[in-house]
Design goal:
Blueprint lengths: L15 H11 L3 E7 L2 E7 L36 H14 L4 H13 L3 H14 L4 H11 L5 H15 L4 H17 L3 H12 L9 H16 L1
Antiparallel strand pairs: 1-2
Helix pairs in contact: 1-2, 2-3, 3-4, 4-5, 5-6, 6-7, 7-8, 7-9, 8-9
Length: about 230
């Protein structure tokens, strides 16, 4: 996979949500992601399960529940950066290597700090240990789909297919979106359209996953007209 990395822009930029999630994880609060059209919100709750953060870091962030308290000073501009939190995360993962969510978060953190090879190596090792884990397959698939190398994209497509079959709605919904995106990158827009339309037929009216799929279909149709 290419070492090309998009510069992060600190707390007020695209790393903001990851810093929020990492800080919450280190303080023992659970974190889960609520996917809604056009944005991604991170909600903190002491009883919520941590979801792998592998989607683009954009949109607004909402905090609620007991876990939000320790993070309050961040809004004043005194929040730590990813580099500051990394040693604590590494230590926590080393102390509990069975923590799948922590290891996925660590890989994402390496990537955001400009160490994609290290992040990829971490995810591949985790994948070898847990070949049937849908969260791990999804995390590695979304990591590889950023590549421009065809072998990486082909591997990503297979991994995202496993993610799409997940019983966790958030993972399944995003995996369907990303599956089609990878197919488009591989030159199979027709296959992507077929996949997305088929998935739409399984979703009830008003389902939060419909908007993302419909947006992807509109993009492909727009390109096809050119």
């Amino acid at each position: 996979m290419s070492e090309k990395h998009e510069e992060s822009s600190g707390w007020l930029g695209r790393n903001r949500t990851l810093v929020f999630v990492l800080a919450a994880f280190l303080t023992g609060a659970g974190v889960m992601f609520v996917v809604t059209p056009g944005k991604r919100e991170a909600a903190v709750s002491g009883s919520a399960a941590l979801m792998p953060f592998t989607a683009p870091m954009s949109g607004r962030m909402a905090a609620s529940g007991a876990g939000a308290g320790p993070l309050a000073p961040a809004d004043s501009g005194g929040a730590p950066g990813l580099g500051d939190l990394l040693p604590r995360l590494e230590a926590k993962v080393a102390a509990n290597p069975g923590d799948v969510d922590g290891r996925i978060l660590l890989a994402q953190t390496y990537n955001e700090l400009g160490q994609p090879a290290k992040g990829l190596q971490s995810l591949r090792k985790l994948r070898q240990e847990l070949p049937l884990n849908d969260r791990v397959a999804f995390a590695l698939g979304t990591f590889l789909m950023k590549s421009e190398a065809r072998p990486d994209l082909q591997e990503a497509a297979k991994l995202l297919e496993l993610g799409a079959a997940s019983k966790q709605p958030t993972i399944s919904n995003l995996a369907h979106v990303y599956q089609g995106q990878v197919m488009v990158k591989l030159g199979d827009s027709t296959g992507a359209v077929k996949l997305w339309r088929s998935y739409l037929n399984t979703l009830p009216a008003g389902h939060e996953g419909r908007a993302a799929i419909e947006a992807e279909l509109a993009k492909v149709a727009k390109v096809a007209k050119k």
